[in-house]
Amino acid sequence: MLRLEKVFQNDDKFFINFSNIFKSLIIYVIIYLFSILEKNSIYEILDYKIYQTSDYFKFSLIVFLSFYIFSNSFFKEHKHFFNYNLNIIKKDFINLILSFVISILITFFFERNISINYIYLIITLLIFLYITQLMMKNFYLYLVNRNIIQKNILLIGNYESVKKILNEKKNNIYVYKCCILTDRNNAEIVKLRSEIRIPIFKTTEDIRSLLEYHSLGQIWIIDDNNINKNEIIKIVIKFSVDILIINISKKYNDNNLINGKYHFDNYEISRFHGSNFLIKIFLDKIFSLLFLTILSPLLLISIIIIYLEDGSPILFTQDRTGWDGRRFKIYKLRSLKKISFNKAQQVVVDDKRLLKIGKFLRKFSIDEVPQFINVLKGDMSIVGPRPHMVEHDIHYSNLFKEFLKRHKANPGLTGWAQIQGLRGPTDDEQMKKRMEMDLWYLNNWSVSLDILIILKTFLIIFKHKGT
Question: How far is it, in rounded angstroms, from Cα 104 to Cα 118?
Answer without folding.
Answer: 9
